[in-house]
Design brief:
Length: 323
């Protein structure tokens, strides 16, 4: 019988410090009006000094485990999407494993930048469908505030820190689109566009570096590729836009989110929106939005959810799942 990877718990964590747009007006030639009208962002959270990605991830994981009614040792694997791991190695996932007191199973990171959570869901789904793991904790966690060039007004006003997590469990499916769980995955990348969004540091320079982005170009690719990947995933699941209850997009820019929803003939009433409160949290934005969407009473059991994301690489993709 076919195994489906079903979400049985979800949770999130946001650092305590909330930074409103007005914060940037004191040291940059920018305004709350510009940031809100160009991106939809009103505020974001920044991690405290010494509060690392694995700390955010572990807190989100604890919330998801509690929601699922499980202990850390009930989990077979941790898949953590991040581009801001605490150290070059070991993986932030193994740090989370230790922080949770998990003494079994395996843990690893996935690095696909803003598309990381979609890649992580796809990977966890493959582990479950192949029978290699029965319960997988899938986390997206980032501290992008540590990658900002605070003199670059085109990027530093856009990003924030946070973490979200889901617990996936293998449940028997019937190979029908009415099954609960992950129904289809579509993953893509095109390394020819690597210069549109990258961090100018790492092994090459010996320093962490700062995020660099050709915003307008990334915007153009996003509007085209997000609708495409979501459509491909829906088709693969044997479903269409009419079946969708919620789009849970990567939260980078309200204008991109609106344009993508429009391509499906939807308004924002079918979109879980958190960009105004979180900014762009890269791989954390989708699990944060899933968790907030459940907390708000938007996403309910049986709902058809489409997640889609694009980021550095370029890497992009979509996952269709029934909650
Ligand atoms: O998560 C990974 C994927 N990332 C994304 O999806 C981001 C995609 N890109 C975007 O969201 C948008 O391109 C931005 C929000 C980054 C920028 O919006 P835009 O409408 O593309 O603006 P722009 O970059 O074309 O800039 C327009 C103007 C420029 O001035 P000039 O050249 O027209 O005089 C910029 O210098 O706005 C200026 N500008 C700002 N002004 C005030 C850029 N940043 C700021 C700022 N405050 N913070």
């Amino acid at each position: 019988m076919l195994n489906r990877a079903v979400v049985i718990g979800v949770g999130h964590y946001l650092p305590e410090r909330v930074v409103p747009n007005s914060h940037f007006e004191s040291f940059l030639d920018t305004s709350n009006e510009w940031i809100v009208s160009r991106s939809g962002i009103e505020r974001r959270h920044f991690a405290a000094e010494g509060e690392m990605t694995s700390d955010l991830a572990a807190n989100a994981a604890r919330a998801a485990l509690a929601h699922a009614g499980l202990e850390a040792n009930d989990i077979d694997a941790i898949v953590l999407a991040t581009s801001t791991a605490d150290l070059t190695f070991p993986s932030a996932a193994t740090m989370v494993q230790a922080k949770l007191g998990m003494e079994r199973g395996f843990a690893f990171d996935i690095q696909a930048v803003c598309a990381g959570f979609v890649y992580a869901l796809g990977t966890a789904n493959a582990l479950i469908v192949a029978g290699q793991a029965r319960r997988v904790l899938v986390i997206g966690a980032e501290t992008f505030s540590r990658l900002m060039d605070w003199t670059d007004r085109g990027t530093c006003v856009l990003f924030g820190d946070g973490a979200g997590a889901v617990v996936l469990e293998a449940r028997p499916g019937t190979d029908s689109p009415s099954d609960r769980g992950i129904l289809a995955v579509d993953l893509n990348s095109d390394g020819r566009h690597r210069d549109l969004l990258y961090v100018d540091g790492g092994m090459t320079t010996g320093a962490t570096g700062h995020l660099r982005m050709e915003g307008k170009e990334v915007f153009r690719h996003a509007v085209e590729k997000l609708a495409q990947t979501a459509e491909t995933a829906l088709e693969r699941a044997g479903l269409s836009a009419a079946d969708v209850d919620w789009i849970v997009p990567h939260q980078a820019n309200l204008r991109i989110i609106k344009a993508t929803a429009q391509k499906f003939g939807f308004g924002l009433d079918k979109v879980v929106l958190t960009v105004q409160d979180h900014g762009n949290t890269s791989a954390a934005s989708i699990p944060l939005a899933l968790s907030v969407g459940v907390e708000r009473g938007q996403i309910k059991p049986g709902d058809l959810v489409v997640t889609e994301a694009i980021g550095g690489g370029l890497a992009w993709g979509a996952v269709v799942l029934r909650w």
